[in-house]
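Hi support team,

I've been running sequence recovery on a batch of backbones for a student project. Most finish fine, but this one hangs at about 90% for roughly twenty minutes before it completes. I'm not sure whether the input is malformed or the queue is just slow. I've pasted the structure tokens below so you can try to reproduce it. Let me know if you need the job ID as well.

Thanks,
M.K.
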């Protein structure tokens, strides 16, 4: 909403007297930081209310059903949209949980598709459930796709691999911290907080990384910030690969990635620093 307002304002750049507005804002700033904070808060609240209304209009009466081997999604209040996706074109399912949704037990479910028809079929990535309780999510997916295991038990990255999740970040982090301290001393010292935050993020990523093989199905779980669970059948995987740095080789760990057809470049799930024998097990499972 805020970016939309900025775009509208840019169209009236010749009409808006920016110099006058600037002087008015300067006078307003003199009144005090409290009024400025209140004004910013009101703007954010209004933007949030407008965004909620837009969401309600777009997702009104959101319905998902299976009809003649097709996944049918209907939604919308002012404009009714219908998406029809053949089940045999579904390549994978992604369950996405950002930190706030993970904390509150919600998730977003995305279908990776090799094509389809309808208003959004061309996008290849179709949101199946925009917002759903995690416990309801698994039960509903089991009803829609009963042949797949929606409660995987993951094999996690080993403890010895934990440093690989944050070690490389220090390569670019150290010069940034040094520059901040040099140019903005003493406030630049606050940039040192990036070190424990980076380590905590790396530990969080390490705890998330895992995989499970269940017959003809592969489940991968990983995160940058949001936790992503990618569930895909073997026959849908377009390519499988592994990477291993010199330091990973010394610790006998290896990263694995699986790519499915979706959109122009496909969708790739990457699980970093698994036990080497686990990564080799995945590669052997994928080989014909």
């Amino acid at each position: 909403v805020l970016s939309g307002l900025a775009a509208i304002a840019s169209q009236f750049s010749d009409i808006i007297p920016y110099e006058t507005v600037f002087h008015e804002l300067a006078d307003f700033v003199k009144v005090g930081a409290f009024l400025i904070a209140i004004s910013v808060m009101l703007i954010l609240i209004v933007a949030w209310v407008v965004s909620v209304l837009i969401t309600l209009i777009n997702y009104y009466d959101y319905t998902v059903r299976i009809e003649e081997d097709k996944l049918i999604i209907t939604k919308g209040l002012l404009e009714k949209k219908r998406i029809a996706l053949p089940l045999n074109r579904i390549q994978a399912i992604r369950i996405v949980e950002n930190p706030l949704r993970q904390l509150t037990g919600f998730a977003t479910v995305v279908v990776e598709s090799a094509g389809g028809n309808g208003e959004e079929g061309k996008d290849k990535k179709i949101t199946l459930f925009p917002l759903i309780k995690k416990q309801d999510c698994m039960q509903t997916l089991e009803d829609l796709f009963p042949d797949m295991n929606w409660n995987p038990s993951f094999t996690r990255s080993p403890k010895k691999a934990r440093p690989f999740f944050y070690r490389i970040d220090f390569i670019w982090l150290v010069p940034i911290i040094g520059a901040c301290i040099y140019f903005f001393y003493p406030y630049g010292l606050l940039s040192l907080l990036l070190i424990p935050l980076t380590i905590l993020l790396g530990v969080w990523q390490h705890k998330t990384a895992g995989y499970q093989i269940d017959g003809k199905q592969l489940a991968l779980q990983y995160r940058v910030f949001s936790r992503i669970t990618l569930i895909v059948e073997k026959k849908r995987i377009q390519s499988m690969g592994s990477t291993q740095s010199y330091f990973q080789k010394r610790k006998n760990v290896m990263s694995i990635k699986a790519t499915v057809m979706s959109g122009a470049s496909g969708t790739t799930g990457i699980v970093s620093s698994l036990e080497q024998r686990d990564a080799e097990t995945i590669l052997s499972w994928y080989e014909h």
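--
Follow-up from support: It reproduced on our side and the slowdown came from queue contention, not your input. The longest strand covers residues 125-133. No action needed from you.
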